[in-house]
Design brief:
Elements lengths: L3 E10 L2 E11 L3 E6 L6 H8 L7 E6 L2 E2 L5 H7 E4 L11 H6 L14 H13 L15 H13 L5 E5 L7 H16 L3 E5 L3 H7 L2 E6 L2 E6 L1 H4 L2 H8 L1 E6 L6 E7 L9
Family: Belongs to the ABC transporter superfamily.
Protein name: ABC transporter
Keywords: ATP-binding, Nucleotide-binding, Translocase, Transport
């Protein structure tokens, strides 16, 4: 199983500081949600974990090994990544698209093996898209496409899975399908990290949350520890209805928070 240790990392995009002194540990068997307002640095953080954004300071370790010492091929076999806003341009069948997840295991001239084919079939079954195997991926609905892209990531056979905004543009039913899939992967022992905007989904399905504001980690812990009325006010600038103690946690923003006006004398 894979563990990611983040120790005091900082990163800039252009001349703007995006991450500042951020530290956390991401553990296997856990669905970790990364939350925060727009522009907080969430996507930059997950890209830094994969060596796609250079860090200026600090250290990222994958199972005790410095990220910078790992080849992209080794890293791709260890952590599967599904970026946000995936667009399909080529009319591939679902099965062929999912099979692209096996690329980190293939050499320049190697052929797809029996093991590769079995991994593809298993990934499609886990993502509940096996019945779509012969369909053309560009003709699928948004919810079907989201599960197919997750199947491609699962086909890697990696011990870690990082997904960036997997719920974007999905209706509530398909959002539930995706979150249940991610939760199942975590329960199977994988390390699963998801960038999320929907706080109710984060509260309901995540084991732990990292709350980021202006590139800094301002809270870490269980959803009940992180999602408080005070943090909704100070980080998101909203008031909200929070009920995390029940079987179906709910976090619903109800309005913009306004500083109370002092009473006139």
């Amino acid at each position: 199983m894979v563990t990611i240790s983040i120790r005091g990392i900082s990163a800039d995009l252009g001349r703007r500081a995006v991450l500042t002194g951020l530290s956390a540990t991401l553990r296997p068997g856990t669905l970790t949600g990364i939350i925060g307002p727009n522009g907080a640095g969430k996507s930059t953080l997950v890209r830094a974990l994969l060596g796609l954004v250079p860090t200026l300071r600090g250290l990222i370790e994958i199972d005790g090994r410095d990220l910078k010492t790992l080849s992209q091929r080794d890293l791709a076999r260890t952590i599967a990544y599904l970026p946000q806003g995936q667009t399909l341009h080529w009319p591939l069948s679902v099965e062929r698209l999912v099979a692209l997840g096996r690329l980190p295991h293939l050499g320049p001239m190697s052929r797809v093996s029996r093991e590769d084919r079995e991994a593809v079939l298993e990934a499609m079954a886990r993502a509940d898209v096996a019945h779509l195997a012969s369909r053309i991926a560009t003709e699928l609905s948004g919810g079907e496409r989201a599960r197919v892209m997750l199947a491609r990531a699962l086909a890697v056979g990696a011990q870690g899975l990082v997904v960036d905004e997997p719920l974007a543009s999905l209706d509530p039913g398909h959002q539930i399908d995706v979150m249940e899939l991610l939760a199942r992967e975590a329960r199977s022992g994988a390390l699963v990290v998801a960038v999320l905007h929907d706080l109710t989904m984060a509260a309901r399905y995540c084991d732990r949350l990292l709350l980021i504001e202006r590139g800094m980690l301002v809270a870490e812990g269980t959803p009940a520890q992180v999602l408080t009325a005070e943090r909704l006010r100070t980080v998101y600038g909203v008031t909200g209805h929070i009920d995390i103690g029940g079987a179906a946690p709910v976090v619903v923003p109800t309005g913009r928070w306004r500083e109370p006006q002092a009473e006139a004398e």
